[in-house]
UniProtKB/TrEMBL annotation:
Signal peptide: none annotated. Residues 10-78 form the HTH gntR-type domain. The keyword Heme does not apply. The lineage of its organism: Bacteria, Bacillati, Bacillota, Bacilli, Bacillales. Keywords: DNA-binding, Transcription, Transcription regulation. This is FadR family transcriptional regulator. The keyword Amino-acid biosynthesis does not apply. It comes from Neobacillus citreus. Pfam families: FCD, GntR. GO terms for molecular function: DNA binding; DNA-binding transcription factor activity.
Amino acid sequence: MKKDMQLPRKKAYEVVIDQIKESFLNGKLPPGDKLPTERELASLFNISRTSVREALRKLEIEGLIEIRQGSGTFLKANPIQDTKSDFSFSIVNNKKKLIFEMLELRRVLEVECAFLASQRATTDDLEQILDSLELMRNSNDDVELGLQADVNFHKNIVCASHNSIFLQLIQSLSERMEDTIRATRKLRLTDSESVEDTFDEHKQIYLAIATGDSLLAKQLMEKHISQIRKEMTEFFLEQNRNS
């Protein structure tokens, strides 16, 4: 059980994608910039050109780069100027709908899984959830570590439901789930108080599951995901008013 819930090591092309996105969001790659050649990227990351091409292909599909035959690969202009609105690559590319759809799915799936986990979780399941919670607590300013802990926390609860169909579903949507959590964490975790509040939400969910309080676990998970949706909705409404 424990082995199944560990996050897989990132593939070579995913490392390239993450680095380019991070450079874009941090302003190290301004809109219109030309990226290094495939050969240069392969050398920089010590990976094959095939992996580089796969990364560029996915970035082109997502709308971040433009590949011009004979000229090279260029970073597309960012249509959103407000730096706060750049909290997610998905949002930069007008994929807000996907985020809300994933939140709707998570609300249906994870609320039920929290309910079932409180009834079915084994000692090992609870240890896995607690490990994720402690990793979240100790992630400090490490964004990726905090993200992995958050993703693992929710996946481990699905695992603890001992419903193989639920587990297969969440595993098949792992990448989209991670993107959604990454986006919402960047919006929510703006100061130490919000970090503490978010951690406490997860802690209370864990305690309800660990003590076998099914109804409370269900209520807390629904409240957690509903709160995220509420904050996202408010953010976009404010964004629209300021545009």
